[in-house]
Amino acid sequence: ARRTMAAVRGSEMSWEERERLEAQADLFSIVYTVEALEKAWVRDTITADQYTDMCRRLIGQFKTVEHMIDGLSVPDFIARYELSCPAAQHRLLEIGVPATVEYSRGGDTSAGELPRAVAETVQHFITSMDALKLGMVAVDQIQPLLNDLLAAITRIPSLPPNFAAKVKTRQWLTTLHAMRAADQLDEAQVRQCLFDLESGYNDFHRSLQSS
């Protein structure tokens, strides 16, 4: 029989059970909201700014609530309640950034806005590298910084979609997105991430000099 959230309600419920149930209800709501948001974006019924702001907020809420459903992974939760949400699964479980960031090619950045976009990209590179050097290696510490970095890089129109720093940053965000907020990068991961950031930073400077 098809299970629903109502099926697990009971008249006598411990505080822990109630908290877990509320977290599951929040997750249920987030997943379906993201599914609807992705469809609205594809159908062009909301603006890019509206989509990006809402998607970032929902991804942040998802990262907060996913660790609160103890003993049940998100894919297991989706399977248990037979949720049909392929777009939400892609955005929340695989990518972790809005589609406007994932696919942007910088075409919306005007010539007048370009110097600021370049300066912000440089700053996000430096901030991300400094954070790792200072021991900020928890997922909820480094992931927002890499999100900002990717968003900045994608605003530079001269950089191709396969620009190494874009690819590496997306890969790291995918890795981080599969981890829990309180998880930490191990020593080898920190070293590799720092190497990728430094390489990307140098590549970015070279691309500016050649453009």
Automatic annotation (TrEMBL):
It is found in: Endosome. Residues 1-103 form the VPS28 N-terminal domain. GO terms for biological process: protein transport to vacuole involved in ubiquitin-dependent protein catabolic process via the multivesicular body sorting pathway. Residues 113-209 form the VPS28 C-terminal domain. GO terms for molecular function: protein-containing complex binding. Its main location: other. It comes from the Eukaryota. PROSITE patterns: VPS28_C, VPS28_N. One of its GO terms (cellular component) is ESCRT I complex. Keywords: Endosome, Protein transport, Transport. PANTHER family: VACUOLAR PROTEIN SORTING 28, ISOFORM 2 VPS28, VACUOLAR PROTEIN SORTING-ASSOCIATED PROTEIN 28 HOMOLOG. Belongs to the VPS28 family. This is Vacuolar protein sorting-associated protein 28 homolog. It comes from Diacronema lutheri.
